[in-house]
Design goal:
Length: about 210
């Protein structure tokens, strides 16, 4: 996995675009509210990001649901580079009044063509402060996150594998972050079925 700074995780623009497209389609397949109706406008893209988006559009196929496991789904999208992923959305978002119309999700992807396994991306559904601090609590374990755009990532890439293992064996995940305006949010995820969903992802994208 390519990284250029442990405090600023590297994520190509094309992958961010595919993440939103795949997850939005997957949520619709699962019967969740349409992401397109609730997500904020994306950040302004640089010329390089715009080129990446065109490539992503060409390379990304329509997601296919491989199976539903508890509160998680397993999906695959064929195309230029096959991507398989587990997808889950919060059971509860706080503060309820402000978050009731905003969709969030966690996307754990495997892209064998890039040598990527179980990469975690958390879409918060609202604009954050770039480089902002956030946390993920899995039962009694805490992991530091960093925000950028609509997303949060594991701050220290070396901790990502440990984070995924904690998710697979845990029961509940709390994601705490803040919007660009300073509003603190807490998303509560059930981890029931995630281990099975990731096993199906690994089987599909060997």
């Amino acid at each position: 996995m390519m990284r250029n700074d442990s405090s600023k995780p590297f994520r190509p623009g094309a992958f961010r675009t595919m993440l939103l497209a795949f997850a939005g389609a997957a949520l619709l397949c699962a019967g969740a509210p349409a992401l397109a109706k609730t997500k904020p406008k994306p950040d302004a893209a640089s010329a390089a990001d715009k080129a990446d988006k065109k490539d992503a559009k060409k390379g990304a196929g329509k997601p296919e649901q491989l199976g539903s496991y508890g509160d998680w789904g397993a999906y695959a999208a064929a195309g230029k580079d096959k991507t398989c992923y587990a997808l889950g959305s919060p059971k509860e978002r706080q503060p309820k009044a402000k978050m009731k119309d905003t969709q969030a999700f966690i996307f754990i992807s495997t892209r064998p063509g890039e040598g990527v396994r179980n990469e975690v991306a958390i879409n918060l559904g609202y604009a954050t402060k770039d480089g902002g601090a956030a946390t993920a609590d899995v039962d009694d374990d805490r992991f530091e996150l960093v925000t950028k755009g609509l997303n949060a990532w594991v701050k220290n890439p070396a901790k990502e594998k440990e984070f995924v293992e904690a998710l697979k064996t845990g029961s509940k995940l709390l994601v705490k972050a803040a919007s660009a305006k300073g509003t603190t949010t807490v998303d509560s995820y059930s981890l029931k079925g995630l281990s099975d969903a990731l096993a199906r992802v690994a089987q599909e994208c060997k």
